Structure prediction request, 70 residues.
Amino acid sequence: MFQNYTFNLNKKLSKSSLWYCTSRSFRGCRCTLKCDRENPLIVETVEGEHNHDPPQYFRSESGVWCKLRG
Ligand SMILES: [Zn+2]
Prediction:
């Protein structure tokens, strides 16, 4: 989870991993996070903007969501 939005892991690169917003498929949201490959808590860059409000409820599947610790 990042700034109240949730993301799914899309693919792993050599040094980082790409996470797509969970609303990408059914809302066409283009927001993508690039995180550290080994530690997804570290968000390197945010690309695109959300075209929707944050979801109000989150599933807690450890290791699935990209989270940023304050
Ligand atoms: Zn989004």
User: Anything to note?
Assistant: The longest helix spans residues 24-27.
